[in-house]
Design brief:
Helices cover 47% and strands 13% of the residues. It is α/β, with parallel strands linked by helices and 373 residues long. Among the domains are: 119 residues, GI Alpha 1, domain 2-like (Orthogonal Bundle); 142 residues, P-loop containing nucleotide triphosphate hydrolases (Rossmann fold), CATH 3.40.50.300. The strands form two sheets. The chain has a six-stranded mixed sheet, sandwiched between helices. A hairpin with a 5-residue loop joins strand 1 and strand 2. Bound molecules: guanosine-5'-triphosphate and magnesium ion (MG). The site of guanosine-5'-triphosphate (GTP) has 27 residues, from helix 2, helix 10 and helix 12. One of its GO terms (biological process) is adenylate cyclase-modulating G protein-coupled receptor signaling pathway.
Length: 373
């Protein structure tokens, strides 16, 4: 699947490098002209939510999505559904092999439906989900063995949009289906290029760049490192019990913290402020009540606090915030004189939370421009 560029158009892989070169040329020119534009970079590892935040910016402060752009997302959403059901089906078959309890034994008809849907999803050409497919998918999804497999989602590289799309698959299969803004925020497309959007807020002009976060994408980031006002570093709070898509032996939170450290140390960012978006707070709130933080190797010293759910959640969140703060301080010589860092817990899917967060970002950046002069 290709990436989405600033105008929301798919970009073929082979066009990437030429576009990168062109973008670098353009940026060099524009940097000279755009002295009054705040340049912000969205950085972070894969699936941390950068593109979702980018989409929220387009929705809140830019032109949003026209009907044609919304429609362009239908194949992406259908592909997300095929991918999710295939991962669940194959994951369930694997679990069944090692299981004697019968928990992972699908109903016989769903074994056949699963095979059929996985084959359709593997096809080279786009096969829209029609009423027939949606019926089969809904049956597979409701199978108790598939639901049991879903509870092991952290081991399966399942996209976070799985439940949202699979539990309402009949809606996506209607012939007159047009994706909603909420659908688009949930849709998962791995970014493979660079995208940008310009917007004005409170008298300031911002230019925000979105990049791909998986390892093989990160070499492209360097093109953007000059003249950056602030880095929005995204880290998914919920990834502490998951391993990387591109390296199944590496914990995602460990990777994110190492990445944060290396970005902080980059000489281009000596005077660049950092806005750390601790994202997927909605998933984290539920997860942390059943999966202890100390399953993650960098959180081994975490001791859960006693008390009600809210207390447990806020205690765990504060612990992670402290970890990021420590990394920032450890890698910032002359603390408070050259750059600043703010931490926010975010849910990129929620427009209200994002609007509130962007207001704070705006205020902090303006204040820091004055105080760091
Ligand atoms: N529940 C939940 N899902 C989120 C949140 N933020 C992002 N997602 C979902 O997580 C998936 C990945 O998000 P992306 O925005 O594509 O991640 P990315 O950082 O751009 O990933 P790369 O392009 O690979 O670097 C999408 O399906 C999003 O809808 C969040 O706060 N909560
Ligand atoms: Mg992305």
């Amino acid at each position: 699947m290709g990436s989405l560029c600033s105008k929301g158009q798919p970009v073929a892989q082979e066009e990437d490098e030429e576009r990168e070169r062109e973008l670098t040329r353009q940026l060099k020119q524009e940097d000279r002209i755009e002295k009054n534009v705040y340049k912000l970079l969205l950085l972070g590892s894969g699936e941390s939510g950068k593109s979702t935040i980018f989409k929220q910016i387009k929705l809140l402060y830019n032109t949003g999505f026209g009907v044609e752009e919304l429609k362009n997302y239908t194949p992406v959403i259908h592909a997300n559904v095929y991918q999710a059901i295939k991962i669940l089906y194959e994951g369930c078959l694997d679990l069944q092999k090692k299981d004697v309890s019968g928990e992972y034994t699908m109903r016989r008809e769903n074994m056949e439906h699963g095979k059929r849907i996985a084959e359709i999803g593997d096809g080279v050409d786009y096969h829209p989900i029609g009423l027939l497919e949606s019926d089969l998918i809904a049956q597979i999804w409701s199978d108790p063995a598939i639901q049991a497999t879903y509870r092991k989602a952290n081991e399966l590289q399942l996209p976070d949009c799985t439940e949202y799309f699979l539990s309402g698959v009949d809606r996506l299969a209607k012939p007159d289906y047009i994706p909603t803004e909420e659908d688009i925020l949930h849709a998962r497309v791995r970014t493979t290029g660079i995208a940008d959007v310009v917007f004005k807020h409170d008298g300031h002009t911002y230019r925000v760049f979105d990049v791909g976060g998986q390892r093989n994408e990160r070499r492209k980031w360097l093109h953007l490192f000059d003249g950056v006002k602030a880095v929005i570093f995204c880290a998914a709070l919920s990834e502490y019990d998951q391993n990387l898509f591109e390296d199944e032996g590496k914990n995602r939170m460990v990777e994110t913290m190492e990445l944060f450290e290396s970005v902080l140390r980059h000489p281009s960012f000596e005077k660049t402020s950092f806005l750390v978006f601790l994202n997927k707070y909605d998933i984290f709130r539920k997860k942390v009540l059943s999966v202890p933080l100390n399953v993650c190797e960098v959180f081994r010293d975490y001791n859960e606090v006693q008390g009600d759910q809210e207390r447990k959640i806020s205690h765990a969140l504060q612990y992670i915030k402290n970890k990021f703060d420590e990394i920032y301080k450890r890698n910032t010589p002359g603390l408070g004189t050259q750059r600043l860092c703010w931490l926010f817990e975010t849910t990129a899917l929620d427009p209200r939370i994002m609007k509130y967060t962007f207001e704070l970002v705006d205020k902090n950046l303006v204040v820091s421009s004055i105080s760091l002069l």
